[in-house]
Design brief:
Length: 433
């Protein structure tokens, strides 16, 4: 009898352990939150909302009800409203819900606002948020059945701003640039309240996880096409040098047909390099250097070179393949670099100067390489984007014949990387979250 009792106790413990060990994918998707779909602007991708995703999940949202929609913002003839409609239908089927909350930033606002014009599509939208985007004079949706609409804009946005719109919930942010108007804590707070009966979020911070799971997508720059079958290698780095701690990767993945990769269990407070190797061996490898992760994140995006002949390929076609020099790019995932507000330094040279970072430029990315191949950093801006928004190309020399550490500084934060030879090893991207 005692043996039977002992066996029964072991059985109960075993069942309990199995229940506790279930992954989130094995549990039912909660229905207490309306799913959220967030859309990016021109030349961007879903990782525009990476920090907002982490804030929503820090405030009780299941990660399976927070989505980003990747669309081709520069392609011709793409039927993005049809693709968005299918994306939303798939979410509704997966979650068992009848509506989503829709968010559009910049050109994504134009896409979202236009999507809502159709009555059958508008019926799928519980709330619509229009961020840093113009072209709106009334709430989203057909005139007879308008959708509750919030307009978020900033006096510091030098790219697009709608101002207050009659019939909408209007939010003006102060001194936020064109990206911060979508990515800031202030924007999150207003969206959360709008989606949750004006209740305040518990926190505006990103709450860390004990176990950190990372996943994401490999996509092409600009067009956001899936990098199917691309290989992703992840290396732990020495934070003092930016060099890999060991030769073999800590983990390797092959992206699926949609470019999805993961899951990787990351250590907290640890620096990693994400190496994206396209399926086509003639295409260039990209090395991503990231700040440490503290929470599980399914929006870790790795961009690879766009296909030949595309608009985006034309933008990047001048990047050299030259083992005498290293080609590096800064990417501000959540803000522009604005001269006088921000300090950005690369290998001791201050690049947050007006000629690279005046507020009207809204500089999100800087490509740094020795354009005239004179073995010196002339610190000139060149190319078609010299006087336009978002991208800057700067004559900046990093020798690559001998391994060395690159040091990048943004507003008190530091990232270090290796100076990979650009012909043999490709391009490095330094991502400040």
């Amino acid at each position: 009898m005692k043996n039977l009792k002992f066996i029964f106790v072991l059985f109960v413990i075993s069942i309990s352990c199995k229940k506790e060990s279930k992954t989130i994918e094995e549990t039912p998707i909660p229905t207490d939150k309306v799913p959220i779909v967030m859309m990016h602007g021109v030349l961007a991708a879903g990782d525009t909302y990476e920090q907002q995703f982490l804030r929503f999940t820090s405030n009780g949202y299941d990660p399976r009800v927070v989505y980003v929609f990747d669309w081709n913002s520069i392609g011709l003839g793409a039927n993005n409203e049809v693709l968005l409609d299918k994306f939303i239908d798939d979410i509704l089927e997966k979650t068992g819900q009848t509506q989503v909350n829709l968010v559009g930033h910049s050109a994504g606002g134009g896409l979202g606002y236009g999507y809502c014009d159709n009555a059958s599509r508008a019926a799928k939208i519980a709330h619509y948020v229009h961020i840093g985007s113009g072209g709106i004079t009334k709430p989203a949706g057909p005139n007879a059945t308008p959708i509750p609409t919030m307009v978020i804009w900033s006096d510091g946005d030098k790219v697009a701003s709608s101002g207050n719109v009659e019939g909408c919930t209007n939010v003006e942010l102060i001194d936020k640039d064109h990206y911060q108007v979508a990515t800031s804590q202030e924007a999150f707070k207003e969206m959360y309240k709008f989606f949750n009966n004006n209740n305040e979020p518990t926190t505006l911070e990103i709450v860390g996880d004990e176990i950190i799971k990372l996943s994401g997508r490999v996509i092409t720059f600009g067009e956001n096409q899936a990098g199917a079958s691309a290989k992703v290698n992840i290396y732990e780095l020495d934070p003092n040098t930016g060099f890999r701690k060991q030769t073999n990767p800590d983990a390797s993945f092959v992206a699926d047909s949609k470019g999805n990769w993961g899951d990787f269990t990351a250590k907290p407070l640890t620096y990693y390099e994400f190496e994206a190797i396209p399926k086509n061996p003639t295409e260039r490898t990209i090395h991503y250097y990231r700040e440490p992760f503290k929470k599980s994140d399914k929006i870790v995006y790795l961009r690879i070179f766009p296909p030949k002949g595309s608009i985006a390929e034309g933008i990047l076609s001048g990047l050299p393949k030259d083992d005498e020099q290293s080609v590096n790019a800064f990417f501000g995932a959540n803000q522009a670099i604005v001269s006088g507000r921000d300090v950005f330094i690369a290998n001791g040279d201050t690049l947050s100067k007006p000629k690279f970072a005046q507020d009207t430029y809204t500089t999100i990315a800087m490509f740094l390489y020795d354009n005239n191949k004179n073995g010196a950093s002339d610190l000139n801006s060149f190319g078609a984007f010299a006087n336009s928004a978002f991208l800057k190309f700067v004559d900046f020399y990093v020798p690559a014949t001998t391994p060395q550490t690159n040091t990048f500084y943004l507003n008190g934060r530091v990232l270090k990387s290796r100076n990979w030879p650009s012909k043999t090893n490709g391009v490095s991207v330094i991502v400040f979250d």
